[in-house]
Specification:
single chain; alpha+beta; Ribosomal Protein S5, domain 2; Alpha-Beta Plaits; 2 domains; seven-stranded mixed beta sheet; four-stranded antiparallel beta sheet; 10 helices; globular
């Protein structure tokens, strides 16, 4: 069995509070057309392999953790071989590991005809991390709580993106554990209103990420990326999630392609594409 695991962009990230040590959010997240490929088959032993040497192939891998949760929760005695072909960069704020985990949850659900409800899928995904529940469904959502409260929204505005991931990342777990710079939510409702009204300008005027200032403060090289995308004619330039990917938006594909061709060799990872999948 094989399946695509789609990345995500965070149009708005608001860290509301910390409860019992867990950050609670209210975010606007959308899927994009960047994906990993997951190959899963039954096997004599548990075996994880990837095409990237820097990724762990043991219990530290989110897919391994996911399989063990599914095996225990649903009394599955089989073992599995999983091959992951990575296109989504690590520590990028694009939900790569979460997407892989969510995809494996849906694959096991289908393979064993578990017929799990959306809530049951979310309960499993919430044991992985805050992005995995969203990645189960791959549609625009308001994501709240610890990632376990999902409200679908319609995004009909045609938008293209350009992503830049510099040669360093941010460890999501360690960053979230340290974060304490809580602020009042400023313009999330305006961003949502823009989405509802199909108002591109209102959307891009109100993209936001509470993590952006503290991350850029520690990694000043990101300022150059932000400046490059803005000067290249992109709108709504913002950081995605808790990683170091900076994105910009446009309704003109040529604008994204022109800037891509200009900077593609300046950074380890540069990609343009369409919001949605």
């Amino acid at each position: 069995m094989r399946r695509k695991a789609f990345a995500k962009l965070t149009l708005y990230l608001h860290a509301k509070e910390r409860i019992d040590g867990m950050l609670h959010f209210k975010n606007i997240i959308v899927p994009i057309d960047l994906f990993d490929m997951i190959y899963l088959d039954k096997h004599e032993t548990m075996h994880i392999e990837t095409d990237k040497t820097y990724l762990p192939n043991d219990k530290r891998n989110t897919v391994y953790k996911t399989l063990m949760i599914m095996k225990d929760r649903y009394d599955i005695t089989d073992n599995f071989k999983v091959r992951i072909v990575k296109n989504i960069p690590a520590q990028a704020g694009l939900g790569g590991g979460s997407a892989d985990a969510a995809t494996v949850i849906t694959m096991i659900n289908d393979m064993y005809h578990l017929n799990l409800s959306d809530q049951e899928l979310i309960e499993v995904a919430s044991q992985i991390d805050e992005d995995t529940p969203f990645c189960l469904f791959n549609r625009p959502m308001i994501v709240e709580g610890i990632g376990d409260k999902l409200t679908p929204i319609e995004l009909e505005t045609d938008m293209y993106y350009l992503l830049v991931k510099p040669g360093f990342g941010v460890s999501t777990k360690s960053f979230l554990r340290r974060f304490k710079d809580f602020q009042e939510e400023k313009s999330l409702e305006l961003c949502l209103e823009g989405i509802e009204k199909n108002d591109y300008q209102q959307i891009v005027d109100n993209t936001h990420n509470d993590f952006q200032k503290p991350v850029i403060k520690r990694n000043g090289r990101l300022r150059k990326v932000v400046r490059t995308l803005r000067e290249g004619g992109l709108d709504g330039v913002c950081m995605s999630g808790s990683g170091t990917t900076i994105y910009g938006l446009t309704q003109d594909l040529d604008t994204a392609m022109t800037l891509y061709n200009k900077i593609v060799f300046d950074y380890p990872f540069v990609k343009y594409g369409r919001i949605g999948k």
